[in-house]
Amino acid sequence: MIKQEGWIPYEDHLGSLWDAFVKEHPHGRFIHLTGFKRTVEAVYKLRPNYWIYSKRGEIKALFPSFFHRSILYGKRLVSQPFSEYGGILFSRGLEACQKLDILAEFPAVIEKSKKKGSFDYVEMRCFPDFEGLDCDLIKKESLYFYGTLCLNKSLNLWGLVDYSVRKNIKRALSYNLKLQVGGSEDEIRQIFYPLHLKSLQRLGSPPHPLAYFLTLQKNLKDHLTIFIARHGEIPISALLGWTVGSSVHITDIASDERYFPLRGNDFLHFEFIKWAIFQDYRTFDFGPVRYPGQMRYKKKWGIELHEYSCFYIPLRKIKKPLSDRSFLGRTASSVWKLLFPRSIAAKAGKFLRRELSI
After folding, report:
1. In whole angstroms, what is the distance from residue 16 CA to residue 286 CA?
2. Regarding the domain with residue range 6-143+308-340, which homologous superfamily does it belong to in the CATH classification?
3. What is the C-alpha separation between 155 and 281, in angstroms, rounded?
4. All residues at 6 or more sequence positions from 281 whose CB lies less than 8 Å from its CB, including other chains
5. Which of 22, 268, 324, 331 is paired with 243 by a 20 to 30 Å CA distance?
6. Mean of per-residue pLDDT scores for the chain
7. Residue 28: pLDDT over 70
8. Judging by beta carbons within 10 Å of its beta carbon (0-12, 13-18, 19+), is residue 211 exposed, middle or buried?
9. Least trusted range by pLDDT, from 181-185, 222-226, 242-246, 351-355
10. Mean pLDDT score, 74-93
């Protein structure tokens, strides 16, 4: 029972109520849970700015965010950093007019937040709960898409996926790939993270430090699952995903390029979706679809595409999100590949990840 009404600052004793709200929400993801808050605080030292909207003792909305300062973006309030999603979660069943009433009081959150630290704008990454609302306060910038797959017990996954997926699964099985399902600290340290470093070096993207994944595992172990493909004793691919409420959200695919012909990545996606169906999850979230290669890969799983947008509230100035397709984004990727060997990538990656909050 929350005695105060309207937008109130989050306090630790409200953590169980906050997390219960997230788990019941169709758009709730691991980045909305308080374990993610503690992880970002501990690893990246960003200052949280979390708010609850209460009415008649019940939570009607949540707003998680962090203060973030960077050379490229300046000072901003980000919901959520190091993530594909963010924004406000409204209580299920609210009418559009009720959501707009809550948003009408949101400027008070901005003003109170500015007393804790200055910022020039508020950024909310892929804010699905805003769809269908007409609010002058919040601006929208369309970027690309994200893909989800609706699940149910009667879903014929083998018949749904593209022929190329079925062919790749048969190839993986012909090589006797074995599945390992886990998520322990040792599996992150010894299997997932080495593959993560290899993959992001190949893609020209800065890796998170090992401490990020280990701290997530510590704070959110009940929500973390890793599917691992082995060829004999050798781990060749790993797919990291999160379960929250009725959804499964995959965020990291890591693999050894020497074993690409064995089709470990397709094997893991197929097994993860099968597992999610068996566990009675309702949504399998593939995340953003940023470029043609991702579009081709994710569409063959029968996904439904949704618009992926960035939402922002300008105060004094606006800096748009840095696109992977921009000249700066492409240049940064090339420079990363050339200048940062794997031996120092983990340490250097932490600083760049913090700078960009990606």
Report:
1. 27
2. Gcn5-related N-acetyltransferase (GNAT) (3.40.630.30)
3. 12
4. 151, 243, 246, 247, 248
5. 324
6. 92
7. yes
8. middle
9. 351-355
10. 95
**Cα distance between residue 209 and residue 228, in whole Å:** 20
- Closest by Cα among 126, 62, 164 to 286: 126
Q: How far is CA 279 from the centre of its chain?
A: 21
Mean pLDDT of 107-117: 96
pTM, whole model, 2 decimals? 0.93
pLDDT band at residue 239 under the 50/70/90 scheme = very high
Residue at 130: amino acid letter: F
* Residue 333's pLDDT band (cuts 50, 70, 90): very low
Q: What is the distance between the alpha carbons of residues 26 and 45, in angstroms, rounded to a whole number?
A: 29
pLDDT at 274 over 60: yes
Q: Mean pLDDT across the stretch 342-351?
A: 71
Average pLDDT over residues 79-106: 96
Contact 281, 99 (CB under 8 A): no
- Give the CA radius of gyration of the chain: 21
Chain centroid to CA 36:
11
Query: Average pLDDT in the 259-276 region?
Result: 98
Domain residue ranges of the chain, discontinuous segments joined by +: 6-143+308-340, 152-281
pLDDT reported for residue 201: 87
Question: Is CATH 3.40.50.1820 what the domain over 152-281 is classified as, yes or no?
Answer: no
Locate 230 and state its tokens: 């082995």
Average pLDDT over residues 273-293: 96
